[in-house]
Design a protein that fits this description.
Elements (H helix, E strand, L loop, with lengths): L15 H8 L13 H13 L2 H20 L7 H10 L4 H6 L9 H30 L14 E7 L3 H14 L3 E5 L2 E6 L2 H26 L1 E8 L3 E3 L7 E3 L12 E12 L9 E12 L7 E6 L4 E3 L2 E17 L5 E6 L3 E2 L6 E12 L5 E11 L22 E9 L19 E3 L1 E2 L2 E2 L1 E4 L4 E3 L6 E17 L3 H20 L3 E9 L5 E9 L5 H13 L30 H6 L12
Antiparallel strand pairs: 1-24, 2-3, 3-23, 4-6, 4-22, 5-7, 7-8, 8-9, 10-11, 11-12, 11-22, 13-14, 14-15, 15-16, 16-17, 16-20, 18-19, 21-22, 23-24
């Protein structure tokens, strides 16, 4: 007996809001915890960091971050230039200091970029390497069921046995350098593994390149030294003008050697549109490593041609002129005689400098005093300074002159506070007066200036040239250079070597004879796979000649070129090939 359901027994009809909720595709709100959790976020961030997109962004950021290091003087390369730059740009120097723009390559932000790139490369190299090892250990993927849908295809009939054709194809493919496997009535062959080797070599080389830079930043040091012709120094912290060490390289790790500047040669173009352009900078030096003076050698240092002594390289980074100055007091006694380097301010080597006579003694007024002189050295002075001031017209020493201003008072050298030897602190000095005007003089080599008020005289005896050197110890340079060369080789291999597969299948036909099929597939669109398949088809005619019923008795092995949108029907091949990355974020 059947049961009849009445209206009163029907379930209550849902209201409009409940029905709308059932039909809606919006996510259901929940009072419980939502999201992928900490582990999920960590996995997502790791996959993003090891993706090709992020790696390229980091590499681009690293290139951008290196630009300030090329445009702004660096403490690790030339601290003297940094000080000069700060003096000329007093407004922005504190900002640059806070942004670490004078120490770009050891700054926090630069280190963060290359450490992230380092981790990104490591996260890419390890899985790719295991993946590639798996590909090498496996056999080439078996032939798909339908070879006619491959991008490149050839077929003909022959009277040879299928086993004979497959064996011949296997032999010919191995002879051509393919890794071939004969099984299941077909031959599967693959070639171009060096493409992935090039990829891995490129990534490993970048890894080595970054490692070399990292090692250099941790175990390198640089020092600066300015020497006038005839001067020498021992490579110790007390004789260097400045030194910048790192975590694993301090002043006690300096390479022991002696270096002396015999003479300096500078030549400039004196005619034509490029008048004043530098043509030769050569520092002729004597040196020996360690402490054995009997091993004294002669050498030359030029721009971009450093001198290597032990584990350090000595670079030529600057040059200028150094006037020879003699100062006598009112009694005619020599109170100062020295060579004073003047610093270039422009391309024509208009140079500024100071002379500090701290041991002058008692002045004309009976009190102990000190003298200071500031001025310009002009290698090629103009006939008149009207409208231009003291400037040099040419960097060569065609018409050298020395312009000086004289001061007396307290130089501040006895206070114990460090001073810049290239600057004159005039806060406690008084400029000498002559005929109611500030005392100044224009001297040529050999000329003397009698100072006013009986302070004696100052003589411009002549001048010499000076050269500044950068002594660099960077143990990671060889690693970085090797990494750069290998990266280029790996990139060439990954760009020009093509990964490709060829399948050959010979099947006996029911009516007699054998059907021979050849198909090719490349990882990228290329005509090379079609050429190789055509050559293989021609070579295979010796063992599997085409039957006469295929045409006029000639070998009919027409090879189809790759189509624009050829999609191979080979799911089992793709599934069995571990070289095809399943992760869309892979750097393949």
């Amino acid at each position: 007996m059947s049961k009849t359901t009445t209206d009163t027994e029907l379930p209550p009809a849902p209201d409009d809001d409940t029905a709308a909720e059932r039909l809606s595709t919006a996510p259901v709100e929940s009072e419980g915890p939502t999201g992928i959790g900490v582990l999920g976020w960590a996995r997502w961030m790791w996959r993003q960091l090891t993706s090709m997109r992020v790696a390229l962004i980091l590499l681009f950021l690293l290139s951008l971050a290196a630009i300030p290091g090329s445009l702004i003087p660096q403490n690790g390369q030339n601290q003297f230039k940094v000080q000069t730059w700060k003096a000329q740009h007093t407004a922005v120097a504190p900002i640059y200091e806070k942004l670490q723009l004078f120490d770009v390559y050891s700054s926090v932000w630069f280190s963060a970029i290359y450490i992230l790139l380092f981790v990104s490369l490591a996260g890419c190299i390890v899985p790719r390497t295991w993946q590639f090892v798996g590909v090498l250990r496996s056999q080439p993927p078996a032939a798909p069921r339908n070879l006619t849908r491959m991008p490149v295809y050839a077929a003909w009939r022959t009277g040879a046995d299928p086993e004979q054709v497959n064996a011949a194809a296997h032999r010919l493919l191995r002879k051509r350098g393919f890794r071939a496997d004969l099984s299941g009535g077909s031959v599967a062959a693959e070639k171009g593994y060096l493409r992935e080797v090039g990829n891995l070599l490129f990534h490993l080389s970048l890894f080595a390149l970054l490692g070399g830079f990292a090692w250099a930043s941790l175990a390198s040091g640089t020092g600066g030294k300015l020497m006038v012709e005839g001067q020498g120094y021992s490579n110790t912290i007390t004789q260097l003008d400045d030194f910048t060490g790192t975590r694993f390289y301090g002043n006690q790790d300096l390479d022991p050697f002696y270096l002396k500047l015999d003479d300096f040669t500078s030549k400039f173009q004196n005619t034509g549109d490029q008048m004043g352009a530098a043509r030769q900078f050569t520092a002729n030096v004597e040196y020996y490593g360690g402490s054995d003076e009997s091993k004294l050698k002669k050498g030359t240092i030029e721009v971009n041609h450093p001198l290597e002594i032990g584990g350090s390289k000595v670079y030529l980074i600057g040059h200028g002129y150094a006037p020879v100055i003699t100062v006598k007091n009112g009694k005619g006694d020599v109170v100062y005689h020295d060579v004073v380097p003047f610093l270039p301010q422009d391309a024509n080597l208009t140079s500024t400098g100071v002379v500090k006579v701290s041991d002058y003694g008692v002045g004309p007024d009976g009190n102990r005093t000190q003298l200071g002189f500031s001025g310009f050295f002009l290698p090629t002075a103009p006939l008149s300074f009207a409208g231009t001031g003291p400037i040099s017209l040419f960097p060569g020493d065609a018409a050298p002159e020395l312009v000086l201003n004289a001061f007396s008072g307290d130089l501040g050298t006895d206070s114990g506070l460090p001073q810049n030897i290239y600057q004159l602190n005039t806060s406690k000095l008084t400029q000498m007066q002559q005929d109611g005007q500030p005392a100044k003089a224009l001297l040529k080599p050999g000329q003397a200036w009698d100072l006013p008020n009986g302070y004696g005289s100052i003589t411009f005896e002549g001048y010499k040239q000076w050269a500044s050197f950068n002594v660099s110890h960077r143990p990671g340079n060889a690693i970085a250079l090797t990494g750069a060369v290998l990266a280029i080789l790996g990139l060439i291999g990954s760009l020009f070597i093509q990964r490709r597969r060829i399948w050959v299948r010979a099947v006996a036909l029911p009516g007699g004879g054998t059907q021979v099929e050849l198909a090719g597939l490349a990882r990228s669109e290329s005509a090379k796979i079609a050429e190789e398949l055509a050559e293989l088809a021609v070579d295979l005619q010796d063992d599997a000649p085409a039957s006469e019923e295929d045409g006029d008795g000639t070998a009919q092995a027409d090879v189809e070129a790759p189509a624009e949108e050829a999609v191979p029907d080979a799911p089992e091949a793709a599934a069995s090939d571990p070289a095809v990355p399943a992760d869309q974020n892979s750097k393949e």
